[in-house]
Give the backbone structure.
Amino acid sequence: MNLPLGETDNLDVSPSRFSKTSLDIDITTIFFKYRPATDALQAQLTAELNVALYAGWRHDFYRIEGKKGTLGKNNHRIVKRGFDFGVLGGPGTTFIGPSTTNTSMTKEYNGMILEYGLAAFMETNFASFGLASGFDHLLNSDRSVWIYNKKPWIGFVVGIALN
């Protein structure tokens, strides 16, 4: 969209506010997951590798600001803010060991999970930052003893737009 922001004798630009709603598709990572306490283990903050595909409805708001410079010239800039809500899902890893299986296992390893949930983002020009809540599904037979199976988590997410 082009706006005529040529020379004028005042700072009034009409219209000065716009909004747009669109589908947002991002690649996200959940930097930190907070897992509430269980019977066997206190609350945990984890930072394992994970990636998810996110899709949601995005709402962008634009505002044109004008300012008269020291030489009397009008300077205009567009200020953009946005947010979106949607779903995410993808692969990740998690620690599996005696502490996360109520000592049902003695071996330790990083297990592959499928994570899924809901997320809300605040948008900037280059990335999205937000919160997510979801569940993890361990992709091997040890899920029957894993204490976090079907238990919720809350996480801090960062997304990079694909569209």
